[in-house]
Amino acid sequence: MVSYTDYEPVPPRARLGFIIPSSNRMVEPQVQHFCPDGVVPHFNRIGMTNRHKAPLEVLQPRIVEAAELLADSKVDVIVLQCTGTSMSGGVDPEKEIIQAMAQATGRPAISTASSLMAALAAVDANRIVFISESPADHHAEKEAYMREAGLDIAASKGMGLPRSDVYCVTPPEYWFDCVAEMQDDSVDAYFVSCANIHATYVIEKLEERLDRPVLTSNQVALWCALRTAGIDDDIPALGRLFRTGLNTQVAASAAE
Question: Which CATH number among 3.40.50.12500, 3.30.300.30, 1.10.10.10, 3.40.50.1820 corresponds to the domain 14-115+219-234+247-255?
Answer without folding.
Answer: 3.40.50.12500
